[in-house]
Amino acid sequence: MKVVITESEKNMGIQAANLIAEEIRKNPDAVLSLSTGATPVGCYKELIRLYEEQGLDFGNVKSFNMDEYAGLSKDHAQGFYYFMYKQLYEHVNIDLKNTFSPDAVNENLAESIQKFEMLIEQEGGFDLILLGIGRDGHIAFNMPDRELKLSTHVQELSESTMNDNARFFDDKSQVPNKAITVGVKNIMDSRKIVLIASGEAKSDIMARFISSDSISPDLPATVLKLHPDVTVIMDKAAAGKLNGTY
Ligand code: PGA
Description:
Bound molecules: 2-phosphoglycolic acid
Oligomer: single chain
Order of helices and strands: EHEHEEHEHEEHEHEHE
Mean pLDDT: 96
């Protein structure tokens, strides 16, 4: 794993955006999987700047949400597809027909999962996945558990994740307790993986993740240690507890 520590959160976003832009320039048909949450916002701002000022072309890019809350539609203000639409898609020349997320309002979630897996397969998997990391080490919504699921599945959300995500809702009672998420094989099949982390609140998990010399379902991000092309970009605050052994 390549580990990059940046002076600021803004710089973390810029460096992540540069890797995504490099992928798009090299491969205009790139298939991306992009994350939601607070951490990637600066990265998407920079991608919009690169589009506006340097003509970074999203015209043939495909983009997959890696997860979605069960029950939230594509136009739900707290949903993850809507997040991607507001933070990136509506500002660049991506064709919305090329933007995908699991259908989380289908009463038959198993059917949504199957369709989503088929779509990922049709597109040949992800060229680049941009991951965040939860304070408990989750990637996408692959939570610490006795085992990690390989493919897209329904995940019950832990109390701590629901608490962390309550800030995006008016009220904690509105946070869905389940989500559809890609599995670790979807992530590991990506040609390139970029993981970003910022802020002091991520410093404990980053120290555990980076220093871990084993793979453990208790800390799902550790599976990334087996992938040949992972870049971890974190700001100084998230790197605050690293012990220099990376
Ligand atoms: P965050 O979420 O960017 O809002 O901290 C990270 C995650 O849960 O993957």
